[in-house]
Amino acid sequence: MQNKLIKKIFVCEFITGGGLCAEQLPESLVKEGALMRDALLRDLSQLPYQVYTTADARLKPPNNVTNCTLVQCKDDIWKIWEAQIKRADAVWIIAPETDGLLHNLTLIAVRHGKKILGCGLVSVKVTSEKLTTCMALQKAGISTIPTYTYDDWQKSDISWLAKPNDGAGCGDTACFDNCDELQNWLLENGRQHTHVIQAFQEGSHASISCVMHKGNAEILSCNSQLVTIENKQLKFKGCVVNGMKVHWQEFQKIAKKIAHAMPDLAGYVGIDVLVKGNEVCVVEINPRLTTSYAGLYKATGVNLAELIINMLTKPDFVWPKIMKNKAIIHA
Questions:
Q1: pLDDT bucket at 3, cuts 50 / 70 / 90
Q2: Residue 150: helix, strand or coil by DSSP?
Q3: DSSP 148
Q4: Same structural domain, 105 and 188
Q5: What mean pLDDT do residues 250-269 have?
Q6: Residue among 216, 150, 214 nearest 187 (CA)
Q7: pLDDT digits (tens, 9 = 90+) for 271-304
Q8: Last residue of a domain, one of 83, 117, 151
Q9: Do 54 and 133 fall within a single domain?
């Protein structure tokens, strides 16, 4: 059933939607962006909404949408996006946290009074930076990896990770066997101003796919992740949706604690965690769709776009009691 307040939805996926129209397109980012965009458009196409999007003219236009604006290399993509947002009743944004991109797109939607089918400005701002995320989790008593700036870092003879403070996923995350290697790498190109430092921790990489609204959270899946180290760089190779469902109860508790601590988190939220024995440590929070979304229809049997829209807009919404719980291999 269509929400009476929403007729037109603009889906804005940064990578495939023209965000890099004047730059070279990284193959891996295009693949991930298209995966999320196409899964979302598939789900929205089954609902009675007018859905439209933008697409980089160098790429094949997406299926399951009839209204798609092609973006050329000379175009001002931010003007195009703002015009598209102004047309919409609701906006669904998929964008990296890097350089404030997700925050800036969310801000445009807020300024034009549009319904955001995702997280609010406050939570996007906090979770877009690893340092502020760490501080917020620690304040809420949620286990996380201690995170340091270069100036606050206390050197010791262990393995270390350096991550962009506002990066997304494994991008430009490097691993070092000792503090001297890390320090030299940071100082080479001024990375001491852009990166944060964490101690390398052993464990199984996993993620939690969930839906949040007004301080509440419900789990969609518990996923195992394949993360490797290649030439000192962390690489994300894919995941198994529900591959970690043995940890469902503990993951559910963590998601609810995070939702309570950050009530501005809304819609789909991905939580990256590290599991070691019975200990679960939160690595970061993704205030947007993650690639796991693409496998969730088969895993749950539920149209999650419809579920999320209903959860965010209907005061009498009730979480469905019956939901599949399959493991789906997904790259």
A1: low
A2: coil
A3: B
A4: no
A5: 97
A6: 150
A7: 999 999 889 999 999 999 999 999 999 999 999 9
A8: 117
A9: no
Asked if 183 and 74 sit in the same domain, the reply is no
- CB 287 within 8 Å of CB 127: yes
So what's the pLDDT on residue 1? 47
pLDDT-above-70 percentage for the chain = 97
CA neighbor of 213 nearest in space, from 115, 284, 120: 120
What is the per-residue pLDDT for 74?
96
Listing from the earlier edge strand, what are the strands of the sheet with 67-71?
Answer: 67-71, 50-56, 8-13, 90-94, 115-116
- Does the pLDDT at position 2 exceed 60? no
In a shared domain, residues 106 and 211: no
Number of domains present in the structure of the chain: 3
Residue 19 structure tokens: 């965000």
Distance of CA 78 to the CA centre of its chain: 21
CA-CA distances (angstroms) from residue 92 to 84, 263, 289? 12, 19, 10
* Res. 169: pLDDT tops 70: no
Q: Report which DSSP code applies to 254.
A: H
Q: Give the span between the Cα atoms of 130 and 124, in whole angstroms.
A: 12
If 0-12 CB within 10 Å is exposed, 13-18 middle and 19+ buried, where does residue 244 land? buried
Q: Which tokens is 250 given?
A: 């503990």
Please report, for the domain that includes residue 272, its CATH number: 3.30.470.20
Q: Which helix (H) or strand (E) holds 117?
A: none
Q: Which residues contact 39 (CB under 8 A, 6 or more apart)?
A: 293, 294, 296, 297
Whole-number pLDDT of residue 313: 94
> How confident is the model at residue 294, as a pLDDT?
95
The CATH number for 38's domain is 3.40.50.11770
Residue that the structure tokens 């809420």 belong to: 140
**Residue numbers of the domain that contains 113:** 8-117
Q: What is the pLDDT of residue 140?
A: 97
Q: Which of 167, 168, 166, 133 is nearest to 147 (CA)?
A: 133
Please, what is the Cα angle at 67 between 118 and 64, to 5 degrees?
70
pLDDT at site 188: 86
Q: Which residues are bridge partners to 51 per DSSP? A: 9
